[in-house]
Write a structure and sequence with these properties.
Order of helices and strands of chain B: HHHEEHHHHHHHH
Largest sheet of chain B: 2 strands, antiparallel
Strand order of the largest sheet of chain B: 1-2
Strand content of chain B: under 5%
Number of strands of chain B: 2
Radius of gyration of chain A: 26 Å
Helix content of chain B: over 70%
Oligomer: heterodimer
Structural class of chain B: mainly alpha
Structural class of chain A: alpha+beta
Helix content of chain A: 25-40%
Radius of gyration of chain B: 24 Å
Strand order of the largest sheet of chain A: 8-9-10-1-11-23-12
Strand content of chain A: 15-25%
Shape of chain A: globular
Chain lengths: 554, 324
């Protein structure tokens, strides 16, 4: 029996909740038009490697579980259930049992089953399919269907990221529709071009390089999405992508470019919404001779010279000049958004006088004021390779050239078409290059990009820098089982990389999405802005004729 | 006539073969392949990229790849566009009609405006309409299409919202619209890209039309017509124009290559997914089969259009002169 005041409070609360529900019901709906600078290369999840392909496939297909807002990749802390309602670990951690949600359905009405998980694992790991992330499943031995709603994953060995690797990348596929197709024929099968998924949105149509349309899945097991539909409207030209948003033809743009901000200031309908990014940019030194990989680079094999050049670069000014406030100086081989990031590391600060003195002490001296430094008849002069497709890297390269000129170091900028840039970078035929990396939530990518070239590491280490202490700390970090231990090892690895200066860590661009005021949205997750789209809606007061769409039912 | 057509066809086949072979050879000097662009991704191991290259035949020697491509072509297959995960034929099947529509509308619009401008200039020779149109046509020839496209997109679409910024159709439940409404909407989206392409065509046609008319207006039969009391517009339209139009029609055939070239940038600016955008993307992605397929089709289109323009010019020439 409740007291009268308590019943009154309950009544008020009930009314408030009811009002809130009514308001929510009223505000749900509308169609989100996303202005996209690129199209999905495919709608087949194992081959969708670009951001656009991932966004679309992950709206159509659900995962077993999704990473949490903290972006932790160790164990299963923070992961939220999706197709798997729950999961249990075996005592030795070599087995994870996923219990599927019995309400989960494919868009054609069939129940999602353990066989779909089993089938997806087979497809993802079949080399004839060519899934980019196949190596992430190297620790998985097999997947078994204990019953229709229980998938059991057996691992060959324990690893801290075994749960993340499996659930974040492997998307269950509808075996009842695809299993009859040979794996080698899957990539261009008609069933792939009109996908039947398990996610919040149902595929409607796709005009490649133009537009892709999805509608709300009314039978979605986690509740119908609030939006009625999503349209990805594709344009290749950067100015066109922004113009669509600014003119009101689109509602959302994943990433605003620096030139867009001037127009944004004069447009009250669109706002810039900051969210975490995973990119960082750097000047990478080649430590091997570009003409003879067996020999050391005549300049950059010397760590003291690399440190002196780093010391001569005023990164704060460079970032401000090239990006205004749209980036911040990078710290090391990581992005601040990664959970292993550490902002307390000791970097090589800017000190031009100290840099000049250090160069003098190394024997690199200028014959007269303003002349290029030289030592033993060799001038301190190098070529900086820059991709012509990146305006920001070009701007940063010009500023670097000027800053290094202040300490009598000559830099020649070599612009190259992106393919030529990649070709020369991967063959090591450069002195230094303006590089950029998009990391992931997991820190493991650092082993491939900065690890010493060798088996299992350093495949994309174009400067062929080698540091055993860095390698050891990264290996230990990736093997550690607690977040604190992982952080400690990566902190040591990052510090080793900063001290050894294989690159001048330049900038971390800040990500800003462009959002029309029509859109009512949830916070954007840095690794996947689309992760909360099912909760977005269009303001009823600002609806347009294009918002009307009927949800799909199986 | 039959021998002429046969000779033309053989000539066309030789041109197509030469163009495709030249493009293939040039591509061998271009670094990269469809899988190089993903090299900056942190989580794609080189072994996977090597597998992709092997799977799509990029590890084969160039001569073998070209032989495979020619062999497949003989069987009516254009190969596989790895950058789009579908066959080249499917890609071109989507893209070609859009470009033909864009270029066709631009050609017709440009021709009509150009002839009209040339006519006005000839009618008002050395007076202000001639000078004004002369300056405009000079500008039309001089201003690059991509610049005009960006200006039109920024001002007419993004700022003043008179036209759509980009794309093939409006957003919304377009599929439920009546056919005529969908067609109108499609044309509405065509106005800016086709209009921009038409400007250069109109400018060139106007300059040629003016020169051709002024040349014809000096002829004796024109003086005779005027002496018989015919009005100036009647003289221009009925006596001068038939003799001045043939070289302008032949010019349309010559305008086709530059129109197709212009479409590459215009389609990119206005998000019109035709042959130009396809070729541009394929070049960036180093998708060799798609580049070769698109080049082949574009070359055939240009040659056929040129031949049609020649035939039309011959048909319109009242003196029965064969234009070659």
């Amino acid at each position: 029996m409740t007291s009268l005041p308590a019943r009154r409070t309950l009544l008020v609360l009930t009314c408030l909740v009811g009002a809130c529900r009514d308001r929510d019901a009223g505000s749900a709906g509308g169609t989100l038009v996303v202005s996209a600078g690129a199209d999905a290369e495919t709608l087949f999840p194992p081959l969708a490697i670009g951001n656009q392909g991932r966004a679309i496939t992950e709206l159509i297909y659900d995962k077993l579980a999704d990473i949490g807002p903290g972006l932790n990749t160790i164990g299963d802390a923070g992961f939220v259930p999706r197709l798997a309602k729950s999961w249990t670990w075996s005592a030795d951690s070599l087995q994870i049992t996923f219990h599927l949600d019995p309400a989960a359905r494919w868009h054609d009405g069939r129940a999602v089953s353990a066989r779909d998980v089993q089938y997806a694992f087979r497809v993802w790991t079949d080399s004839s399919v060519g899934a980019a992330q196949r190596s992430w499943f190297s620790g998985v031995d097999s997947v078994a269907a204990a019953d229709s709603l229980t998938a059991r994953v057996y691992f060959k060995q324990r690893s801290p990221e075994q749960f993340y690797s499996f659930v974040y990348l492997l998307i269950p596929l509808p075996a009842h529709r695809l299993a009859a197709i040979a794996d080698t024929a899957l990539h261009d099968a008609p069933e792939i071009r009109a996908p039947v998924g398990s996610g919040p949105f149902t595929f409607v149509s796709w005009t490649p390089r133009a537009r892709l349309e999805l509608v709300a899945n009314a039978a979605y097991y986690r509740g119908r999405p609030r939006l009625d539909g999503i349209v990805f409207s594709v344009a290749a030209q950067g100015a066109t992508v922004a113009a669509k948003l600014l003119s009101g033809e689109a509602d959302f743009l994943e990433q605003l470019a620096p030139p867009d901000f001037a127009q944004l200031a004069a447009n009250p309908d669109v706002r810039a919404l900051p969210y975490g990014g995973f990119d960082y940019g750097f000047l990478q030194f080649n430590t091997r001779d570009p003409r003879n990989a067996a020999a050391a680079h005549p300049l950059f094999a010397d760590v003291a010279l690399r440190r002196a050049l780093t010391l001569a670069v005023d990164r704060a000014t460079l970032v401000r000049s090239a990006f205004d406030t749209l980036a911040r100086p990078a710290i090391g081989p990581f992005s601040r958004t990664q959970w292993t990031a550490d902002t307390t590391l000791t970097g090589i600060g800017f000190d031009r006088a100290h840099a000049a003195a250090l160069l003098d002490s190394l024997g690199w001296r200028a014959a007269s004021p303003g002349a290029v430094r030289s030592r033993g008849g060799r001038a301190l002069r190098f070529a900086l390779l820059v991709p012509a497709s990146s305006r920001t890297r070009q701007a940063a390269a010009v500023l670097l050239q000027e800053q290094l000129k202040q300490v009598d170091v000559a830099v020649t900028i070599e612009n190259a078409d992106f393919n030529a840039f990649i070709d020369r970078a991967s063959h090591g035929t450069f002195d230094a290059l303006m590089g950029g990396v998009r990391t992931t939530a997991s820190p493991r990518g650092v082993r491939d990009i900065w690890g010493s070239p060798g088996p299992g590491r350093g495949a994309s280490n174009w400067g062929r820098w080698s540091n055993t202490a860095f390698d050891a700390h990264v290996d230990s970090g990736l093997a550690a089982t607690t977040p604190d231990a992982v952080r400690a090892q990566f902190r040591a690895a990052y510090q080793a990389a900063i001290d050894d200066a294989p690159a001048i860590w330049l900038y971390e661009p800040r990500m800003f999405a462009g959002v029309h005021r029509r859109v009512i949205l949830t916070p954007l997750r840095p690794d996947a802005w689309w992760s909360g789209v099912a909760e977005w809606s269009i303001d009823p007061a600002l609806r347009l004729p294009r918002d009307r769409r009927a949800a799909a039912t199986p | 006539m039959g021998r002429l057509v046969l000779a033309r066809m053989l000539q066309a086949a030789a041109v197509v073969a030469a163009v495709v072979t030249a493009v293939f050879l040039l591509l061998q000097f271009a670094p990269g392949d469809p899988f190089a662009a993903s090299l900056e991704g942190a989580d794609i191991p080189p072994s996977v990229r090597a597998e992709w290259r092997g799977h799509y035949g990029f590890e084969l020697p160039p001569a073998q790849r070209f032989a495979h491509w020619v062999g497949a072509l003989a069987h009516g297959q254009l190969g596989y566009a790895a950058s789009q995960h579908r066959t080249v034929a499917e890609v071109l099947h989507d893209a070609l009609p859009r470009t033909l529509l864009l270029v066709g509308v631009a050609l017709v619009l440009g021709f009509a405006l150009g002839v009209l401008a040339g006519l006005l200039q000839a009618r008002h020779h050395r007076r202000w309409p001639d000078r004004l149109l002369g300056a405009l046509t000079f500008g039309g020839v001089a201003v690059p299409e991509f610049l005009l496209g960006l200006i039109a997109m920024t001002w007419l679409a993004a700022r003043w919202r008179l036209f759509p910024v980009a794309g093939l159709a409006s957003e919304g439940d377009v599929a439920a619209w009546p056919l005529w409404e969908r067609a109108l909407d499609h044309l509405w989206h065509l106005v800016l890209p086709a209009g921009v392409l038409a400007v250069a065509v109109a400018a060139r046609v106007a300059r040629h039309q003016r020169a051709a008319l002024l040349g014809v207006l000096k002829e004796d039969y024109i003086r005779t017509a005027r002496a018989k009391g015919a009005g100036e517009w009647h003289v221009l339209w009925h006596h001068a124009m038939p003799n001045a139009i043939a070289p302008v029609i032949a010019l349309l055939g010559l305008a086709m290559p530059s129109l197709v070239g212009g479409a590459v940038l215009i389609e990119r600016i206005f998000g019109w997914p035709g042959m130009g955008l396809t070729l541009f993307d394929a070049l960036l992605a180093r998708d060799f089969p798609l580049i070769l397929g698109a080049t082949l089709v574009a070359t055939v289109v240009v040659i056929v259009t040129r031949a049609l323009a020649d035939i039309a010019a011959a048909a319109f020439d009242p003196r029965g002169l064969r234009v070659t």
